[in-house]
Amino acid sequence: MSMNVHLSRKLGIPIFYPTTSYTAIDLIGGERQTLVTTLDNMYRTLAKQAPSVAQDFQAHRDFYLTVAAIAKAKFQQAPNFPSSDDEILSAEVPSAGQIGMQFIIPEDIARNQAGGTPTAPSTWDSGTLTAGTPFFFIGSSNATAGFFSTSGTEPFRYILAIQRNGLVEVGGNTPAFDQIFYTNAQSQYTPFSESPLYQITNEPTKQVYAYNTAGALILDETIQSKLIGMPKYSVNSRVALVGVKFFEYGYLSHIAASTGQGMAF
Q1: Rounded to 5 degrees, what angle do the CA atoms 75, 16, 65 make?
Q2: Domain boundaries, the chain
Q3: Is beta strand 192-193 parallel, antiparallel or unpaired with respect to 177-184?
Q4: pLDDT over 60 (residue 256)
Q5: Are 39 and 61 in contact (CB under 8 A)?
Q6: What pLDDT, on the 0 to 100 scale, is given for residue 188?
Q7: In what helix (H) or strand (E) does residue 42 lie, and over which residues does it extend?
Q8: What number of other Cβ atoms are within 10 A of residue 182's Cβ?
């Protein structure tokens, strides 16, 4: 089962989360307000860079809040997000023992274009693509070791929530991919074709292209995933994943320092 029917019906968007059941713990008033405030601030940051991407981000607020409740259930040893009673009113700055929420950065994923075991990249840059050769945004071509999952080890646990059409190419003259393929160890299904107008930028004055991913993605420690693109052109490319991560406080003391350019428009 790839599409989580219950979540998809609840939120009104297709959601790839291949589990027949999940547990969520309700967000208490103070921490829910902090999450909403933080999501609003993240929206404003994106709106300065790419309004069309920011609009999609804002439309996924209920999706992000739902995944926050799932994260809270998974991280019961660290059960609370910052609340309105805390000194800093932001889920981006959790204190020890709390859960945080931030934008996804390259170090949160793992990939390998040579077919080996995926490792964390330090940038969204894809290097030079080869037309007709699959590019792995997440994972690798290795049949057994090529799947990616998040950490399920306390206190480094985290979950990724990627919005629908949250695969965004920035800065290129021509979008490189005309097919996107998401797969996991639990299921197999077809690639997603791009719109016939996909070469038209999403922004009037910037080169920003949002690829069709057919649904939002939830990636956790139980799901082994790959996200793949088929390049139509041999070009340099930079494709970012737009979404948020929910993490235990210890996770950011464990992650490598970022040297990439991230969401630079």
Answers
A1: 45
A2: 5-20+27-253
A3: antiparallel
A4: no
A5: yes
A6: 74
A7: helix 29-49
A8: 22
